[in-house]
Specification:
Chain lengths: 1048, 387
């Protein structure tokens, strides 16, 4: 696990947001860095933050999650830690907040916000340089709540918080814990670290398996006993004996069996025979009974036969008789029909008569009908005209209106025209008014320009003159000054000269000796030698020269100024001349004159400008008027046109109106007044039409009725004729048949017809009688035959066959014996096989039990050894512990390697293996072997510095072994929090060497210390500063300039 | 001719196995003073690591003060020195500006590299002495306003180039420099000069100088050329230096530019000795040892346990520094250890159990036991896989 970037917000002493970018170390190829700062500034908090971000708990036991919030943080900054780290090629980010009070968003006050956590993984292909540049798409959410994040982190890192604190973060004073811990505690830690629960599980499994086997064996034994019990045997031997006996019995039965079968067969045959005999006897008796019955019915049958004969005789007579009766019936029917028809005919004729009369009546009305029709035609014509009249009237109305409109239009057009003309005149006048103003404007503008130019020039000149005058004045004053100065200087000089001369004289005078000639005048007498006078104290040559110089200067300046004045005066004259040029005829006081003139000119100019404005206004007005005039003229044309159109329209309308009036008059003449309304006409016409139609209908109906009545009469007449003919025929037939019947009767021998009729039988009766006779005869014959047959048969049977009962009982006895013996044999066979199976099973069971017991012995031994229990394991060391001990040995080997180096061969760490301790957790105690004394001593006897070395070596050794054992766990980082202060400078060097080696091996090594030597030696330093507003943490600028890294 | 003495790595105030070596260092410096008296050099050059710590003990500072006063003050020999990786530039360079005028030049800032000292030798022959203090490469980068100097080599190269550029005139030049030059042999007592990157410097960097007086390695040696040399440390500071002949270099630069180097051995007050053998032997020899006052480091070769070795030996050797067991040192050979661990890793559960079984019961597992165990393990694995 390599840290990449850590951001702490409102966490511990970091009130604001503090970020540490560990990637700068990679850029600088330095894996060793120092975190330093004042006590309480927040160094250890950095490690706390890392632990918190990963596991939700901090590095030391005395800082719990909820007290992590910074006291100085502002209310709207929640406590949060964001940590990005790399595990091999993958990069992860975890963001976590502890449970804390959060400010409510919409109201005052606080609420408790629960702890949150989120874990992300950077998308494939992106590198650590991208962790600040990536968008939210680059990060894949792996877990979104505290529980899941905790679980995933532990899985990814391969260790939990405790292990992490032992192996990666070696907290203040805490890693010495491992060194001086009790065996039990050490055992627990090593167990979690090295995941030896597997061995515990193996032990448990062995025990479990042994127990399982034990109960299995028990079950088998029970099974065996049950089986033996079910066979009702106590010992094995009688099972076999029993088996023998049964087998013998079975064999005997099997031998007997065929004989028995034979006997059975014989008995069955004999019984069968007896049965046949008995049956024959029974049948004989039955036949005899039957015959008797038949005899009883004999007389009945005779009678039936007689009846049959009589019927045969009557048959021919009766057939003729039938015919006769039929004909008589027919005749009767015919007579009835004739009557009926006659009556119908009479009615039909009466009807016909009536219909005819009706028809003739209607026909008489024919001429009236004609007149109605003619009327109708006339009405048609009238109606047409009436319509035309109506149209014409309405048109007339419209036309009148149109005419009125047209007249109106004409009047309007006239008015418009007059208006337009008037307007035109107005506009024309206006335009003329302002015509002249346009050229005036131009002229005025030109004049003004000229005047302006002149004025400017004049003003300029005036100014010049004024200036020149001022100049002259100034110069004059200056000149006065200078003259004064020059005068003063001259005066001073004169005085000084005088003084000088005097002093010279005085000097000379000093040297004067009486009688010696004076150097000045040569006189030997010196009546009044010059003296130094106070007023003219000794003046040196230098002073004089100075004063001369000054005087010279002053007069020079004066001369210069005089020249200046002269030139100024000249300038003034020039400008006055120029001014004069403006007013050639002017007098002396040109300046005043000029000023006066200027003012006048200004006034004149103003006047002109005002005029110009007025003229411009007039010109504008002229333009407007001209435009308006044009518009009006156009309008006038349009109005004229409109007027002409209106006139013509009106004339048209009038013409149309008059023509229509004429049409109306015509039509009115052609129509009588009552027929002028087409609607009325129509009504009358319709009425008439109805009348005609009704009449025609009636006529047609009557005709049809008459025709149908005629047809009816004719039909009836025909029917009557037919009936008469049929009647005649039937009468003839009757006669013939009656004659035939009489003849047949005679032949039959019946006395009368009635008797003959009686003898007739229906078909059914006939059949019954015949059947009866037939069956009786048949029965009688067969019964007799059978009787003879049976009598014969019975004679054939042997004597024993007549005793059925005896035969039956014989058979039963044999059968019973046979089946009993069969059953017994079957039972025997079953029991035999049962016993045989049982024997096998029991043998197998015994073998299994044997095997299982053997296995159990082995398992038991293994389990007891694994558990560390006697009798097999007297060392009281169980499997887990053994493994742990060997792991611990590995750790100590690695640790000793480092310690040996750090202590320059004095110390190594060992595990105490002695049996002195009967406690179960013995075997994991640590001792230090001291080369100086050659003995081992407990780790608690080490001094502060020695203890630190030992603890550090141990922690690093632990980390080494954990890493190589846990496979994928990569511990590329280790943090050491304090402890270096207890070392002397030599040991410190050695400790530094160890740390340097570590980082050379590719690890990131972070050291928290305030020891100055380390500050000097470790180049990469994180400074934590404590401020009243919270702490800050920054890299000291000994690293290569930032831009080699962040310029990505 | 220009003649000077080149020495370095005094580490005044250093302790060896907890014992202060100040007395011996004072003795050595006295001998050095005598040598100076004899040789009469035109300058004394100290190439760094004057003290052992940035904040040295008072006695060490006093010692140096006395030395400097005597040599530079009383005898007026110009002394030029640079801070090494054990010194603090700022502290060692205290009042260096003022001292320059009094014959003591301390090149304590990077810029000082461009302010050489011109010294006169015999017959007006002059030489230029340059000095580069030991600083982190980033300091050099800051001063030269470059951002590509991340290693000691690149920093020194840049500085030497700049010095050569600014050099005018044909005078021979001597450079004082504290660095690890390629090919140099290290001892146990040197501290890593640059953590996290390549620390060594190629000798070609110094090709522009007539002689380069190096400091840092404690063994006297040349480094890539005859004119690029380490003078070695004042005293032996670790076991590995016992075989070195500690010395200082007398360097003569002749007018024709030729360079001659003579090594002068510095006698030591007490030797540092390493004795190896079994305790009994050593004790026997000890009683006949004449130099019992020496600093002794002992390596015991006994295979078995030895009791109170230190106390027993200390009886004879009052300055016994350290006792260690060399026989078991080989056990801590790294490669062996990792082999062992790897071998352990590959042991299967079965083998592990078998070892355990044997160690507990004294007898190995028989076939049946192995079989049963295998079955149980297989079942356990299946169960685990199913989860």
């Amino acid at each position: 696990m390599r840290p990449l970037r850590l951001r702490m917000q409102a966490f511990g002493p970091y009130a604001d947001s503090a970020e540490i970018d560990f990637r700068r170390l990679t850029a600088n190829n330095g894996g060793l860095f120092l975190i330093h700062g004042q006590t309480g500034a927040g160094k250890t908090s950095i490690l706390d933050a890392i632990c918190f971000a990963l596991f939700g708990s901090s590095s030391g036991a005395d800082r719990d999650g909820e007290s992590l919030r910074s006291d100085l943080a502002s209310a709207d900054r929640p406590t949060e830690v964001r940590f990005e780290f790399a595990l091999g090629p993958d990069i992860y980010r975890v963001v976590r907040r502890p449970k804390q009070l959060e400010k409510r968003k919409r109201e005052d006050g606080y609420r408790v916000a629960n702890a949150t956590a989120a874990l992300y993984k950077l998308a494939r292909g992106l590198t650590e340089a991208d962790i600040d540049r990536g968008s939210t798409d680059s990060w894949e959410l792996l877990a979104g709540n505290v529980k899941n994040v905790d679980g995933v982190v532990i899985e990814l890192l391969g260790m939990n918080a405790d292990q992490f604190r032992q192996v990666v973060v070696l907290p203040q004073g805490q890693f010495r814990r491992f060194l001086s811990a009790q065996s039990g505690e050490r055992e627990k830690l090593l167990e979690t670290l090295f995941r030896t629960e597997r061995y515990r599980r193996i032990t448990e499994q062995l025990v479990f398996k042994a127990q399982e086997l034990e109960s299995e064996i028990k079950q088998h034994r029970q099974n065996l006993e049950a089986q033996l019990a079910s066979l009702e045997i106590g010992e094995n031997e009688s099972l076999d004996g029993r088996l023998e006996t049964l087998k013998a019995e079975a064999a005997a039965l099997t031998e007997e069996s065929p004989l028995l079968e034979d006997r059975f067969r014989l008995a069955t045959e004999r019984r069968q025979t007896a049965q046949l005999a008995a049956r024959a006897k029974t049948e004989l008796a039955a036949i005899q009974a039957r015959l008797a019955g038949l005899k009883a019915r004999q007389s009945e049958v005779e009678k039936a036969k007689e009846k049959l004969a009589a019927e045969r005789r009557s048959r021919p007579v009766l057939s003729v008789d039938q015919r006769v009766l039929a004909i008589e019936r027919d005749l009767r029917h015919l007579a009835e029909s004739e009557e009926r028809e006659k009556r119908a005919l009479a009615a039909a004729e009466r009807e016909l008569h009536e219909n005819q009369a009706q028809f003739e009546r209607l026909q008489a009305l024919a001429p009236e009908l004609e007149s109605w029709r003619a009327e109708r035609t006339r009405l048609q014509g009238l109606w047409t005209n009436a319509n035309r009249l109506k149209d014409a009237n309405s048109r007339l109305h419209e036309l009148n209106r149109a005419y009125a409109t047209a007249a109106e239009k004409v009047r309007n057009a006239e008015t418009a025209l007059a208006d337009a003309t008037e307007k035109r005149r107005e506009k024309q006048l206006e335009a003329e008014k302002f015509a002249e103003s346009v050229p005036r404007v131009e002229a005025l503008r030109r004049e003004i320009e000229l005047a302006k130019a002149k004025l400017v020039h004049l003003t300029q000149n005036l100014k010049e003159v004024d200036e020149a005058e001022t100049e002259v004045k100034i110069e004059r004053t200056r000149l006065a000054d200078f003259e004064k100065q020059a005068h003063t200087a001259a005066q001073a000089l004169k005085e000084l000269k005088y003084g000088f001369h005097l002093s010279q004289a005085a000097i000379l005078a000093r040297e004067l000796k009486k009688g010696e000639p004076c150097p000045v005048c040569g006189s030997p007498e010196h009546p009044a030698p010059a003296r130094f006078m106070d007023a003219h104290a000794a003046v040196s040559k230098e002073e004089l020269e100075a004063a001369e110089a000054k005087e010279r200067e002053a007069s020079e300046r004066l001369a210069a100024h005089k020249t200046r004045l002269e030139s100024a005066e000249r300038a003034l004259k020039l400008s006055e001349e120029r001014l004069r040029a403006h007013f050639p005829g002017a007098d002396e006081r040109i300046r005043d004159y000029a000023r006066h003139m200027r003012e006048e000119q200004v006034r004149a100019l103003e006047g002109m400008q005002r005029e110009l404005l007025a003229a411009e206004e007039a010109a504008r007005k002229w333009h407007n008027a001209t435009a308006a005039l044009k518009a009006v003229e156009a309008y006038l044309e349009k109005a004229e046109l409109a007027y002409r159109n209106a006139l013509s329209e009106r004339d048209e309308a009038r013409a149309k109106f008059e023509s229509t009036c004429g049409q109306v008059a015509e039509l009115e003449a052609s129509l009588p007044p009552e027929y002028r309304d087409p609607e009325a006409i129509k009504e009358i016409g319709v009425e008439l039409k109805e009348k005609i139609k009704a009449h025609e209908k009636k006529l047609e109906e009557s005709r049809q009725l008459r025709e149908s009545a005629e047809r009816k009469v004719a039909a009836l007449k025909a029917r009557l004729k037919t009936l008469a003919e049929q009647k005649a025929m039937k009468t003839e037939e009757l006669e013939a048949e009656s004659k035939a019947r009489d003849e047949a009767l005679k032949a039959s021998g019946f006395p009368s017809l009635e008797e003959c009729r009686l003898a007739g039988l229906s078909e059914r009766e006939l059949q019954e009688l015949e059947a009866l006779c037939r069956s009786f005869d048949a029965d009688w014959a067969s019964a007799n035959d059978r009787l003879h047959q049976l009598e014969h048969e019975l004679k054939e049977f042997p004597d024993w066959a007549h005793d059925l009962a005896a035969r039956q009982s014989e058979l039963d006895a044999v059968d019973k014996e046979r089946s009993e013996k069969k059953a017994r044999l079957l039972a025997l066979k079953e029991k035999i096989s049962l016993y045989q199976n049982a024997g096998e099973r029991i043998a197998k069971l015994r073998a299994e039990i044997e095997k299982a017991e053997q296995r159990y012995r082995t398992l038991g031994r293994l389990a007891s050894v694994a558990q560390g229990l006697p009798p097999f394991n007297t060392a009281r060391v169980n499997l887990s512990r053994y493994v742990l001990a060997s792991r611990l040995d590995e750790v100590l080997e690695q640790a000793s390697r480092r310690l040996y180096k750090m202590s320059r061969g004095q110390f190594i760490l060992k595990r105490s293996t002695g049996q002195e301790d009967r406690r179960r957790s013995a075997g994991l105690d640590l001792k230090v072997e001291d080369a100086f004394s050659g003995t081992t001593r407990p780790t608690s006897s080490l001094s502060g510095g020695e203890g630190f070395m030992a603890s550090l070596s141990l922690a690093l050794g632990l980390a080494d072994v954990v890493q190589s054992r846990l496979g994928g766990v990569r511990l590329e980082t280790v943090f050491v929090d304090e402890g270096f202060g207890t070392l002397d400078s030599e040991t410190l060097e050695l400790a530094m060497k160890t740390l340097t080696e570590l980082q050379a091996g590719g690890r990131l090594v972070g050291v928290i210390s305030h020891v100055p030597e380390l500050r000097e030696q470790i180049r990469n330093r994180l400074i934590v500063r404590k401020k009243p507003s919270g702490s800050t943490v920054t890299w000291e600028e000994t690293l290569a300039p930032a831009k080699t890294f962040t310029e990505t | 001719m220009f003649r000077f003495i080149h020495t370095s790595d005094w580490h005044l105030g250093r302790q060896l196995y907890g014992k202060s070596l100040l007395e011996d260092q004072a003795y050595a410096l006295e001998r050095l003073q005598e040598l100076i008296e004899t040789v009469r050099p035109h300058a004394l050059l100290i190439a760094g690591d004057v003290f052992d710590r940035p904040l040295p003990p008072e006695a060490a500072v006093a010692l140096f003060d006395r030395f400097l006063t005597e040599v530079a003050g009383t005898r007026n020999i110009p002394v030029l020195l640079i801070p090494g990786n054990h010194d603090s530039c700022e502290r060692l360079g205290f009042a260096s500006g003022l001292l320059r005028d009094r014959g003591v030049t301390i090149f304590s800032k990077v810029e000082d590299a461009f302010k050489p000292v011109t010294l006169k030798g015999d017959d007006g022959f002059e030489a230029l002495i340059y000095g580069i203090p030991f600083v982190e490469p980033f300091e050099v980068a800051k001063t030269l306003e470059r951002d590509d100097l991340a290693t000691p080599e690149s920093a020194l190269e840049a500085l030497c180039e700049e010095i050569t550029k600014r050099k005018t005139g044909p005078l021979p030049s001597v450079l004082l420099c504290h660095a690890l030059v390629m090919g140099g042999e290290t001892s146990e007592s040197e501290r890593e000069i640059f953590i996290g990157g390549s620390a060594s410097v190629h000798p070609r960097v110094f090709s522009g100088f007539t002689y380069t007086a190096l400091g840092h390695l404690h063994k006297p040696q040349r480094a890539g050329a005859d004119t690029i040399r380490y003078s070695g440390s004042l005293l032996p500071y670790s076991k590995s230096e016992i075989s070195h002949e500690k010395c200082v270099n007398e360097v003569r630069i002749r007018c024709d530019g030729a360079v001659e180097v003579i090594a002068h051995h510095l006698p030591q007050l007490r030797r540092l000795r390493y004795l190896e053998g079994e305790l009994a032997e050593l004790l026997e020899k000890a009683s006949g040892d004449e130099r019992r006052d020496d600093y002794i480091i002992v390596g015991l070769t006994d295979k078995g346990a030895v009791l109170d070795a230190f106390a027993k030996l200390n009886h004879f050797y009052p300055r016994l520094l350290h006792v260690s067991r060399v026989s078991i040192a080989s056990e801590f050979d790294f490669s062996q250890a990792s082999e062992r661990i790897r071998a352990m890793e590959e042991r299967s559960d079965l083998e592990l159990f078998a070892d355990f079984f044997q160690s507990i019961t004294g007898t190995p597992m028989d076939d049946q036991e192995r079989r049963v165990l295998n079955e149980v393990l297989a079942e356990l694995n299946r169960g685990e896989h199913a989860l």
